Amino acid sequence: MAPRSCSTCQTARAVLRRPKTGALVCRECFYYIFEQEVHQTIVSASLFQRGDRVAIGASGGKDSTVLAHVLKTLNDRHDYGLELFLLSIDEGITGYRDDSLETVKRNKVQYGLPLKVLGYDELYGWTMDEIVRQVGMKNNCTFCGVFRRQALDRGAAAMQVDHIVTGHNADDMAETILMNVLRGDIARLERCTEICTKGPDPQSSVGQDAEGGGCGNHNGNEFGGTGIKRSKPFKYAYEKEIVMYAYFKKLDYFSTECIYYPNAYRGYAREYLRELEQIRPSAVIDIIHSGEALRVGGEVKRMPQRNCQRCGYISSNDLCKACLLLEGLNRGAPSLGIHSSKSRYVKEARKGDDEGEASLKIGRKIPMFQRIDSSSSTPVESTS
Ligand SMILES: Nc1ncnc2c1ncn2[C@@H]1O[C@H](COP(=O)(O)OP(=O)(O)OP(=O)(O)O)[C@@H](O)[C@H]1O
User: Where does the record place the Cytoplasmic tRNA 2-thiolation protein 1 C-terminal domain (predicted)?
Assistant: First the structure.
C-alpha cells in the first residue's frame, strides 16, 4: 500500500494517527498541532499574565518534562513574557525520586531553566521512605499527596513565583471525574474540572475553596491563603499524545512508576476508562466536557478558608492537614491524622502546642508559611 500523506500539510508522509482525533499526520505537523492546542488552552483560559513568574512542577516524568518543553517553546514562539522555573519536590523515595531528580537536573541544563529542589526531610523532618516504614503501603499516598501539595506552594513562595503549573493531563482529569462520581463526592466533582485553582487542590480532601473559575481574574486577593495560582495547561492533552511527543522529540524523561503506588481506586477508574475508549475513542474528552457542564443542585457545604494556626498555610480547620498528619507521625500514631474525628484531634494537637515543643516526641513543626507578592502585570494574549 502506498504511504499516506499528512492530512494537515498534504505533502509529508503521515507517520502517526492522532489518538485524540484519528487524523493521520506527519511528525512536524503533530508537534505543531499539539503545541498550538496547548497554546489555545492557555489563551482561552487567560492562564498567565505577562511578567508572571511560573514554576513548572517537575517530577522528571513524561508529563512534566513535555510540559516544560512545550511551555518554553510557546513562551518563545508567542512572546508570553513569562519567567519560567523548574520546581521539584524530593519526597525521599530511594530508587525512584532520586533517579527522577537526576533527569530534572539534566532538563535544567537542556532547557536552560533555573531549578529549585525542596525535600520532605527539610520541610517535614520525614522522608517518604521513613513514612512508609511507619505507615505501611496502605495510606502512604495520603501523606505524600498532602505533603507534596503544600511543599509545592512553599517552594513556589520561596521562589517568589505567582503560578505553579503541573503536568496533569486529560486522562488524569477524566479519571478524577469518574472517581468523584463513583464516590458521590459532589464538592470535589464540581471543582475538579477547573483548569486553575488556588491553594489546596480540589482533588484533595483539604480545604475546599469558596470560589471557582479560571485564571482570568487576576485580583491578587482572589487567590486567597497562598496567593499562588495552580493550573493544568495539559487539561485537554491526551496522555498518549504526550507520550508520542516525548518519544518522537526524544525528550529526556524518567518513566518508572512510584514504588509506593497502591492507589487502587484510581487504578480501577483508569482501567474502566481504557475499556470505554475501546468502544468510544472520544470517551476521555467527552467525560471532561460532561464534568465541565455539570451543575450541582442544592447547597454543597464548603468550608471557610483560614490559616493554619500552627504553620500559617491555608486550611479549613484550625490546623492544616499536613500539620495533623505530621503530628500523628511524630506521636508514633500516624493513623490519627488520617482517621480521627477532626475536632477532637485538632483539640488534642493544639493542646500539644500550648504545652510547647516538648509535647512533640520526634521531628518538628512545619515552618511558618510566608509569601512575598511579586508585582502585577498584563494578560498574555494570542499572537496567532
Ligand atoms: N515530586 C514532584 N515535584 C514537582 N512536581 C511534581 C512532583 N510530583 C508530581 N508533580 C507534578 O504533578 C503532576 C502530576 O503528578 P503525578 O504524580 O500524577 O505524575 P504523572 O502523571 O506521572 O506526571 P509526570 O509524568 O510528570 O511524572 C506532574 O506532572 C508534575 O507536574
Answer: 306-336
